[in-house]
Design brief:
β1, α5 and β2 form a beta-alpha-beta unit. The protein has three domains: about 120 residues, no CATH class; about 90 residues, Rossmann fold; about 190 residues, no CATH class. It has about 425 residues and is of the alpha/beta class.
Length: about 425
Amino acid sequence: MQYINRFDLVIGDVFILYISLFLMLIIRYEPSSFSLRIQSHIVPFSLVFLVWLFVFLMNDLYKLRSLRMKKLFLRNLILAVSISFGLSILIFYLFGPFFSLTPKTNLILFGIISFVLLYVWRLFSIRLLSFGQVRVVFLGESGSLSRLLLYIKKNPQVGYRAESHIQDPSSASFRKMQNKKIDLIVLGPGIAHTSSLLSSLKLPSLSKISFVPFQDFYGSIFEKVSLQDVDEEWAQQLLSSRRRLYDFAKRIADFVLSVFLILIFSPIILLIWMLVSISSRGPAVYVQSRVGKGSKKFNLYKFRTMHHKSDGPLWTEDKDPRITPVGKILRFTHLDELPQLFNIARGDISFTGPRPERSELAEKYKELPYYDFRHLIKPGLTGWAQINYRASTSLKEAGEKLSYDLYYLRHRSFFIDVIVIIKTLKYVFFSS
């Protein structure tokens, strides 16, 4: 069995943060005043801890597959603690009178203690991940199986060990497998509901074994869909899935938040409109036909970043001469996207979802299998594909992004939407 998961990491971090707070108070103050100090520190630091967990999420500290890479995990931990420490100083500086607390030495001491304990906790987590591996047998064929098996072998931190791969469930190899210690059987495309498989199982010996379709297992590892293995059954399940309450609540949240942000950013929107109008000929706002939900076309608004009526390839190239000086700044800061808040308020797009493509590109991308599935839901200002893969410059890369879009369609929820928004903010503010 697997001994640890993401939720365990979050709970462990919360525990470590409070232990660090208690140790800091023990070191700093006399035992007689400890109870009083706890009362004055517990509420403000609890609020600060929420910020720390938010920053940890932004820096991939809850991604199990990157935990084993010690250099990457140590770099992410140092960066996350540094950012969290800086934000803590800012919070106590701005709201010190409200908290009746302006810790200085305490924060430094807390930062040191928490970093050491978090580092030890993560090392312990790595040992647990390697020790508590789920023993897996793969049944049937899959176009992505060889890549998956190689990845599991090279990355034990994901918590799985491939015991064997059996192509034919009715073979003698499958019957022998029933005597092994197996935790999980991954069913390849087309195998999940075959009567020959079910009739050959010895249920008493397999009563503690879990079964999972290949696509679900693949998605849990790579957080995307294997396009090579999308079959009619999986496609039908996606088509029949409905989340009416989720869609309704999301639409309300989109409208309220977009109107709020329009009011907040209205001075900046006006300033950019003036700069674009003055710096180059043409309209300040660029209107482009995009394909939305139900394959219906709509007009998407962006601040113009290229010279008016520029011809060229559909994909933007590095050092593209069509981009204006002001446009370079707008693209770098992503401020050219601000007019899309009006699209969100109108209901053309949402904050999260598959990125709407230009009509010409959408027509080209129809060569990809199941591409139109991404039009089953409303497109988004940002999406799961955008935070996991670079902007596509070819049909092959568009296919890779489609695998992430289909994963989002299958697993979309408010939790994933929050992750998308957090990772997008990280990209906007901390990526060059």
